[in-house]
């Protein structure tokens, strides 16, 4: 990690969880190319549950080309919480859901520590399968 990121990590750790979350949202909005910096900073402090959800709501609304954003959130949220959170917010696009499954499910599996984590991951996988089966393209192919 470079000196600037180290300094920003120290700045975040000196703030309350709520202040740090607001600072990240202000400095690194999700739509900005610099939002990748936020995903590097997020794992370097402890977050209250409300800020975990706020940050997830802000940064995980996009489709990603790598698992890195999901890995960042797996490091700060219990696997079951992240899996259940995502299951309630599945993308509408079949392509985005397919990419989500490809990137997120292995990350969740790698971070599964308890039976409750495994159950939540399976609920998410089932929700993705159910949604795929209800897609018009899916029924047209059969």
Secondary-structure map:
Blueprint: H1 3-14, H2 17-27, H3 35-41, H4 49-59, H5 68-74, H6 79-87, H7 94-111, H8 115-133, H9 136-141
Describe the sheet with the most strands: none
Order of helices and strands: HHHHHHHHH
Q: What's the number of domains? A: 2
Q: Indicate the mean pLDDT.
A: 92
Radius of gyration: 16 Å
| Strand residue percentage | under 5%
Shape: globular
Uncertain residue segments: none
The count of β-strands is 0
Number of helices: 9
Helicity, as a percent range: over 70%
Counting helices, strands and paired strands, the structural category is mainly alpha
Distance between the termini: 50 Å
In a nutshell, what does this entry contain?
With 142 residues, this protein is an all-alpha fold.
Question: Overview of this structure, please?
Answer:
- With about 140 residues, this protein is mainly α.
- The protein folds into two domains: about 1-60, no CATH class; about 65-140, no CATH class.
- The chain has nine helices and no strands.
- The chain has helices at about 5-15, 15-25, 35-40, 50-60, 70-75, 80-85, 95-110, 115-135, 135-140.
- Helix 1 (about 5-15) crosses helix 2 and helix 6 runs parallel beside helix 8 (about 115-135).
- The chain is globular, with a radius of gyration of 16 Å.
- The N and C termini lie far apart (about 50 Å).
- The relative contact order is 0.10.
- The mean pLDDT is about 90.
